[in-house]
From TrEMBL:
InterPro entries: Cupin_2, QDO-like, RmlC-like_jellyroll, RmlC_Cupin_sf
PANTHER family on file: PUTATIVE (AFU_ORTHOLOGUE AFUA_8G07350)-RELATED
Annotated source species: Spirosoma utsteinense
Family matches, as Gene3D superfamilies: Jelly Rolls (2.60.120.10)
Leader sequence segment: 1-30
Listed name of the protein: Quercetin dioxygenase-like cupin family protein
Taxonomic path: Bacteria, Pseudomonadati, Bacteroidota, Cytophagia, Cytophagales
Keyword check for Nucleus: no
Ranges of residues in domain Cupin type-2: 84-149
Keyword annotations of the record: Signal
Length: 203
């Protein structure tokens, strides 16, 4: 009986101490889910390195394109595309409601209509077009224009990739091309909103 009494007297304070610790200790944080980890990674850019001529230029309906940095490399933050547009190319007036778009002219001369203004942009020029701004672009010169196109956030380059795939099966001179291109624009309506035609200045 003496030993049992001693056990109860010495064990009770230990029990109370343990209960007190459990009361004041904050609960362990739940393990991070895969979705939490993905959210942390958004906007982080991975290493991208190319040698001269990489990646290969791909033909599309009015020139060729090189996809330098896409969504996978930046987790959707931005993308970078090199575009070469042939003489006579002209887009309709359009806007990108969720993307900022910028052009740096590497070769040739770009003509850009932004809202009510028209800009002639020779080699070395740069233009940033904020999201939601009506604009159109054209190559009115007799030589190709080469551009670095930056898109923030990324996404719009998928429309250009679809144009590359379309060009593999239907060329611009084919009677079905205009219809298929219109279908492509409808498919990618979240990337580009077509507003109508515009009159480019004569050179």
């Amino acid at each position: 009986m003496r030993n049992r009494k001693v056990f109860n007297q010495t064990g009770l304070p230990a029990f109370l101490f343990l209960a007190l610790c459990l009361t004041i200790t904050p609960p362990l944080r739940a393990q991070k889910t895969a979705n939490d980890l993905r959210k942390q990674q958004v906007g982080k850019t991975g290493l991208v390195v190319y040698k001269t001529g990489e990646p290969a230029a791909l033909p599309y309906d009015f020139g060729k394109v090189r996809f330098l940095v896409d969504s996978a490399a930046t987790n959707g933050a931005w993308s970078l595309v090199e575009i070469t547009e042939q003489p006579g190319y002209k887009t309709p007036m359009h806007r990108h409601n969720s993307w900022d778009e910028s052009f740096y002219v590497l070769e040739g001369t770009l003509t850009a209509k932004v809202a009510d203004s028209v800009y002639t942009l020779p080699k070395g020029s740069y233009i940033l077009i904020p999201r939601g701004t009506p604009h159109g672009q054209a190559n009115l010169a007799s030589v190709p224009v080469k551009l670095l196109l930056s898109i923030t956030p990324s996404g719009f380059e998928r429309h250009i990739k679809d144009r590359v795939e379309l060009f593999k099966t239907v060329k611009p001179e084919h009677s079905e091309f205009a219809t298929k291109m219109d279908s492509l624009r409808k498919k990618n309506a979240k990337y580009i909103e077509i507003l109508g035609s515009w009159d480019a200045p004569k050179r």
